[in-house]
Amino acid sequence: MKVLVPLADGFEEMEGIIIIDVLRRAGLEVRTASLKPGEVLASRKTRHLADTTIDAVRKETFDAVVLPGGAEGARNLAADAHLAEILQDMKTRDRII
Q1: HSE-up of residue 52 (Cα within 13 Å, Cβ side)
Q2: 0.90 exceeded by the pTM?
Q3: Could you give the CA distance from residue 28 to residue 50 in angstroms, rounded to a whole number?
Q4: Which of 76, 59, 61, 71 is closest to 7 using CA atoms?
Q5: pLDDT tens digits for 36-87?
Q6: Which of 7, 21, 31, 59 can bridge 40 by disulfide, Cβ–Cβ 3.0-4.6 Å?
Q7: What is the pLDDT of residue 23?
Q8: pLDDT for 7-33, tens place per residue?
Q9: How far apart are the first and last CA of the chain?
Q10: In order of start, what are the domains of the chain with their CATH numbers?
């Protein structure tokens, strides 16, 4: 199973990092993608480097997308047009969000 975990500035570390860790330990293929190139600054001001960017994975096929919370992070994810495109495709294909 191929899972996308988008990371946006302000994401809640516990909701992002722990799910990534658990899914990888379970043997799933997990790709993290930031909204922009470079580091992502999480809600508690820790810095994280995603595997790639949302723009780079737009045409890839995923079985699931996990959206980490955090008020600011959720707002940033909701405002991203490329992520909206991915989520609409996931919904159309009846995939897990």
Answers
A1: 10
A2: yes
A3: 17
A4: 76
A5: 999 999 999 999 999 999 999 999 999 999 999 999 999 999 999 999 999 9
A6: 7
A7: 99
A8: 999 999 999 999 999 999 999 999 999
A9: 13
A10: 2-92 (3.40.50.880)
**Cross-strand partners of 34:** 7, 53
Q: Which tokens is 77 given?
A: 């994810």
In this structure, are residues 76 and 10 in contact, taking their beta carbons and an 8 Å threshold?
yes
Please name the residues in contact with 56: beta carbons below 8 A apart, sequence gap of 6 or more.
Answer: 33
Minimal CA–CA distance to 57: which of 22, 1, 6? Answer: 6
For position 30, what pLDDT does the model report? Answer: 99
